[in-house]
Amino acid sequence: MDSVLLGLAGVLGNDRVEVDGARVATVSRDESDLPPARPLAVVRPRHTQDVVAVVRACHDARLPLTARGGGTSLEGSSVPSVGAIVLDLSDLARVAQTSVEERLAVVEAGVVFDRLNERLRPTGLFFPPTPGGSADAATIGGMVATDAGGLYAVRYGGTRRWVRGLTVVTGDGTILHTGSRLPKTSTGVDLTQVFVGAEGTLGIVTEVTLGLCPVPEARQRAAWAFDDLGTACACVADLLLGIPDLAAVEVVDRGTVDLLRAGADGAGAPAGDLLLIEVHGRASECAAAIQAACDIASTFGARPVDGATDPWELRHRLTRAVRESAAPSGVVRTDAAVPLPRLAAFVAATQERAAARGRRLHVFGHAGLGILHFLAPLAGAGAWPLDEARDWKVALCVEATRQGGVVSGEHGVGLGNREAYLATAGATLPYLRALKSVFDPAGILNPGKIL
Ligand SMILES: Cc1cc2nc3c(=O)[nH]c(=O)nc-3n(C[C@H](O)[C@H](O)[C@H](O)COP(=O)(O)OP(=O)(O)OC[C@H]3O[C@@H](n4cnc5c(N)ncnc54)[C@H](O)[C@@H]3O)c2cc1C
């Protein structure tokens, strides 16, 4: 074994450092379809001091180090570089404190999103940003590092809004405590936000102080089918203006719906281009909001959905179903976002261009936030050649940015969005590089991601 690893095994214990076996294979990839990379070892710390020991060893030996939570990144953020050490944070899984009075929880980075909300249930509070289909695996540390959002960000915002403070180990092994327990401060620059969305390139988050929200008294859902996806998207801005209690606004194109309908348990699925909403509030308010939403949707020609299957249940299965339909090659995906007034035209133009090329394109996403996932399958009917799909993705992200949007609305930059990000970051780049060298002077933390 490498001398650095021998040293770490001495400090953390032999069973905490693995150089082969299933775990090493697992951490070589994430949920993206980007190529895997085999790390030198996986190291599993139990607490912040273990993390310090690993970071210092990597810093001194100039070894790359990639933090890993649930490994559910869709853009290669948690794929290590070849020969890196992967820091598997899944054993930092304690909910250290909850305070109902302060509406907060102090949790270790490896706590899984669903487990946290299960723990919080008796308190009547919850942590709202829900990463959809990965909620049972994504960790709070990973969500902080990608500023994860999801279904309910329309009403509650993304992870960033709920992070009050962090314990972070920087690239030279210094422990920083940022922020506070308070929901609002004005005490100078809050470094907390520097680490949110940094994808483990500036520091390793070991503990998070999270604000919490009261669980809404009632939730109610509705769904409609439209003649085309552009019209469904055009309806979104009116819904957001007219319904203050909207918590989620999702769209799914008919091709993706048909894919699910063709599957083993898809017989009861509704047909058409779908728009799904969820409202949160008091029971009486929810009923009134749903009625108002129906009135608005009908002015856009919406029809009630048919079929016995709950369209929301379908929504949770989409990401993996589309990927499976393109096996073994997978998909090239986007999570670019555009301002709402541009959404309908952006979707229609993107669909038209793909159809003109004879390519299959799946479209779904958080329309209420302007975030759309376009998935270009690399195998099966209407498959895209890899190079064409990659070029298309960069062009789409650059166009979204030109229209006032962003390259990534929720999955992060990672490896998959990096080219488009670098093409659009402009004058901010030298400042970001300077920031990187302050927090990670040896450049060991998740190299090759974002910058
Ligand atoms: C089916 C499916 C649906 C999804 N839906 C959504 C969605 O609706 N919304 C959404 O936002 N995302 C979604 N995602 C993407 C993904 O779940 C999120 O990005 C999630 O936040 C990643 O958490 P993780 O614990 O798996 O992080 P990982 O994948 O392990 O890591 C992600 C990044 O964070 C870094 N990191 C991890 N832990 C730490 C730490 N403690 N300190 C510093 N850096 C760290 C890693 O190095 C990496 O750069 C989805 C993924 C899947 C597979």
Give an overview of the whole structure.
By secondary structure, this protein is of the alpha+beta class. It has 3 domains: 3-88, Uridine Diphospho-n-acetylenolpyruvylglucosamine Reductase, domain 2 (2-Layer Sandwich); 95-214, 2-Layer Sandwich (Uridine Diphospho-n-acetylenolpyruvylglucosamine Reductase, domain 3), CATH 3.30.465; 218-411, FAD-linked oxidase, cap domain/gating helix (Vanillyl-alcohol Oxidase, Chain A, domain 3), CATH 3.40.462.40. 35% of the residues lie in helices and 20% in strands. It has 15 helices and 18 strands. It has helices at 3-12, 22-26, 48-61, 113-120, 140-146, 153-156, 192-195, 229-242, 254-261, 283-298, 311-325, 340-356, 386-402, 418-424, 429-439, and strands at 17-18, 41-43, 65-68, 85-88, 95-99, 104-108, 125-126, 163-170, 175-179, 203-211, 213-214, 218-226, 246-252, 273-281, 303-304, 331-333, 362-365, 373-377. The strands form 4 sheets. A 7-stranded antiparallel sheet has the order 15-12-14-13-17-18-16, sandwiched between helices. Strands 5-6-10-8-9 form a 5-stranded antiparallel sheet. The protein has a 4-stranded mixed sheet with strand order 1-2-4-3. Strand 5 and strand 6 form a beta hairpin. Helix 8 packs across helix 10, helix 8 packs antiparallel against helix 12 (340-356) and helix 9 packs across helix 11. It starts with a helix and ends in a 12-residue tail after the last helix. The mean pLDDT is 95. It binds flavin-adenine dinucleotide. Flavin-adenine dinucleotide binds at residues 30-31, 66-74, 77-78, 89, 109, 131-134, 137-139, 141-143, 145-146, 148-150, 199-200, 204-205, 319-320, 410-412, 446, 449.
